[in-house]
Prior knowledge:
The chain has four helices and four strands. The chain has helices at about 10-25, 30-50, 80-90, 115-139; strands spanning about 65-70, 95-100, 105, 110. Strand 2 and strand 3 (about 105) form a beta hairpin. The longest helix is centred in the C-terminal third of the chain and has 23 residues, at about 115-139.
Amino acid sequence: MTVFSNAMWEEWKAAYLVHKVWHRDPRRMVGTDVAQMAVYNNAALAKNFFPKTPLGQIAPGASADLIFVNYHPYIALTADNLPRHIIFGFHESMLTTTIVNGKILMKDRQLLTLDEESISIKAKTLADQVWKRYRENLK
C-alpha cells in the first residue's frame, strides 16, 4: 500500500501508523524515527541534488525554509516528545508564516508574493478544462 498526501504532517502520521499496521507490531516506527526520516534524511537526500548548498541547518548562508506554527499543546512540549506532538498535534491550519531562503512568503496567513484571487480564478478555469478532457477520454 502506498500512501501519498500533500499534507506534510499527515505523511508523518501515515509513516508512523502504517509501519505499525504492516508489521503488526505497535513498537515499530517510533516518533523519533519518523522525525529522523522527515528532517535529517530529507536534507541528506537533497544534498545529492544540491551538493554545494548548506541544507538541514539554520545558519547564515544556509538554504533554510522556516515555518511558524500557532500550536498551543495541552501537554508540555519537550525535546523528547516533540515528534509525537508533530505527529498527533500539528495540522496545516496552524501554519501562520513561511520563510524561504530568507524571504517571507506568508505572514500571519497572508500570502505576500502571490495574488490568491487571480490564481483561484485561473485554477477554476483550468479545472473545468481538465474535467472536460477527462470525460472525453472516458468515452
